[in-house]
Amino acid sequence: MNDNAHKKRKTFKVLKEELGCSQPYLNRGKCEARGNGVNKEFPLPVIEINKKYYLTDGHTRAFFLASNEVEVYLDEDIIESKDDFAAYSVFVRWTLAAGVFNVYDLANRIIEEKQFKDKWIKRCERHYQSLKSKD
């Protein structure tokens, strides 16, 4: 999605402690790069599952926001895609099983970039492949 797509969508605010995640780790490299400069005006995409909002992207930015509120919008691209929504539902389930219930829970789950790729990105890629092989 291009960086301006959110401007056409209705945004709303969610408290950080009520904002769920769809990944159980943060990439240390991204954290170090983002730690000094976060664009506070750019809303983050979410999906709603069981009356709770979960980030689909922007976990690092949400983590570093000084505000206790995060401006978000519904990620229609994910919601409208049956496969993507199914995949993100699984990612949320994995994240909850890892003990990450909101953005604050990521504080002790910052890992090196290689670990992030091995533990998370590859796992997600395998899951996407399994969805495609079922088609």
Keywords:
6 strands; Conserved hypothetical protein from pyrococcus furiosus pfu- 392566-001, ParB domain; four-stranded mixed β-sheet; 135 residues
Commentary on this structure:
The chain is α/β, with parallel strands linked by helices. The chain has one domain: Conserved hypothetical protein from pyrococcus furiosus pfu- 392566-001, ParB domain, CATH 3.90.1530. It is built from five helices and six strands; from the N terminus they run ββαββαβααβα. The strands form two sheets. A four-stranded mixed β-sheet has the order 1-5-3-4. A two-stranded parallel ribbon has the order 2-6. A hairpin with a 2-residue loop joins β3 and β4. α4 crosses α5. The radius of gyration is 14 Å and the shape is globular. The relative contact order is 0.22.
Helices and strands in order:
Blueprint: E1 11-15, E2 26-27, H1 28-34, E3 44-49, E4 52-55, H2 59-64, E5 69-74, H3 76-79, H4 82-97, E6 110-111, H5 113-134
Parallel strand pairs: 2-6, 3-5
Antiparallel strand pairs: 1-5, 3-4
Average of per-residue pLDDT values: 88
- In terms of structural class, how would the helical and strand content be classed? alpha/beta
CATH-derived architecture:
Alpha-Beta Complex
Order of helices and strands: EEHEEHEHHEH
The first-level CATH class name: Alpha Beta
Kindly provide the radius of gyration, computed on alpha-carbon positions and rounded to a whole number of angstroms. Answer: 14 Å
Write the CATH fold name.
Answer: Conserved hypothetical protein from pyrococcus furiosus pfu- 392566-001, ParB domain
Characterize the quaternary organization of these chains.
single chain
